[in-house]
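Onboarding guide, step 5: your first structure request.
Type a short instruction followed by the sequence, for example:

Predict the 3D structure of this protein.
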Amino acid sequence: MPVSHASVAAAPLSHAHYGRVAIALHWLLALLIIGTFFFGLYMTDLPFSPARLKQFNWHKWAGITILALSALRLLWRLTHRPPALPPMAAWQARASHALHGLLYVLFFATPLVGWAYSSATGFPVVYFGVLQLPDWVGKNAELADQLKLVHRTLAYGLGTLVVLHVAAALKHEWIDKDRLLDRMNPFARKA
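The system replies with structure tokens like these:
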């Protein structure tokens, strides 16, 4: 049965919280993903130079870190039940689950395609300049061009989903006033 907006406002405020590990992984990934997205936008227009190569390496390191933290976050999520959502319309709950599912897909797909793109360009990923990761594909300029476009498209898709995620969270905070944001707020008082 769908929940009306009036019954949501009358419902008790949610005091359920994620645990410290889930909250830490959420905010660390949020900062890394947003920072890496904007850094990627900045560096793509730089002229070819040693400084640009260094910045591309930083971008790759951030992408591999995002990939590793996403795997850790997914494992944590699969072994730790999230707190219940506050009362809301069924379509909102379905939209929330769908959005989170798509976010997880792009947490993995975006850096993996970026890694393949790097392999196809002939510039391997050397994590923090120490650990050379295996190439996914051989050097291939045509494939690199295709993977570059796919990586860019996935990054813009991830950016769009992040904006939708933030907008939905703010809607719950400012319009629904159901304290949904407290679930991921490390400073929220726990009931």
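Each response can be followed by summary notes, for example: Confidence is low (pLDDT under 50) at residues 1-14.
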